[in-house]
Amino acid sequence: MDMRVPFFAEFAEEAGYVSAEAGAGLDAAGLRCHLEAHYRTLHRRLAHDLGCTDRASDSLHDAWLKLGDMAPTLRVRNADAYVYRVARNLALDQLRTERRIVSWEDLEDEAALPDPQPGPAQTAEARSVLARLERALVDLPYRHQCVLFDVRVAERTRAEVAETYGLSTRNVDTLVRQALDHCAARLRGTCADGESLRAA
Predict the structure, then answer these.
(1) pLDDT (tens digit, 9 = 90+) per residue, 64-77?
(2) Could you report the per-residue pLDDT of 143-166, keeping only the tens digit for each?
(3) E strands of the chain, at which residues?
């Protein structure tokens, strides 16, 4: 934003400018004094709009410097609005610049991140584990399957499951433990396919 460039007369009022001949308004030094005197209010507004107190502080500092570059013939009638606009525009310009910059370090860091997608070997291993687990569940007695499903998948209480199948809660615990032990043994390979708890 180049504040040395004069505005057309029809936009002067909207922009907050008046000419030196008008005899009203603040020059650069006056605007800097206004910024210092109203720093807290301006900072609070900017922090709210920008969502960051540090960025608000930086933009007000940059605005104070920028005001020193203002053409000496210009005067500003609405100092508060003008100073706020300068600070906000500088902050937005900085944000746009930061979004365009991508350093080599950023690219290298991103390239070094592990790929979250599983590779072919991991996919094959996962499918193998699921297949073994499915076979282990099929080999469970029907009552073990039902109780395990109700407790671990449907998340019913032990008392509800016991009432449904005419069991004690202790029996429910036993069936769940037996079913889980069987599945774990199948996954560890210490229990052969087809070997079930039907004899248990």
Answers:
(1) 998 888 777 778 88
(2) 999 999 888 888 889 999 999 899
(3) 17-19, 74-76
* Domain definitions of the chain by residue range: 24-103, 140-189
- Measured in whole angstroms, the distance separating CA 137 from the mean position of its chain's CA atoms is 40
Instruction: Using the structure block, give the residue that is written with the tokens 């248990």.
Output: 200
The CATH class that applies to domain 24-103 reads mainly alpha
Whole-number Å distance between alpha carbons of 113 and 30: 52
Question: Which residue, among 118, 122, 130, has the nearest Cα to 187 in the 3D structure?
Answer: 130
End-to-end CA distance of the chain: 84
pTM of the entire structure?
0.43
191: left (phi over 0), alpha (psi -120 to 50) or beta: beta
Pick from 70, 98, 71: which is nearest to 83 by CA?
Answer: 70
CB 176 within 8 A of CB 147: yes
Task: Of 26, 24, 20, give the one whose Cα is nearest residue 67.
Answer: 26
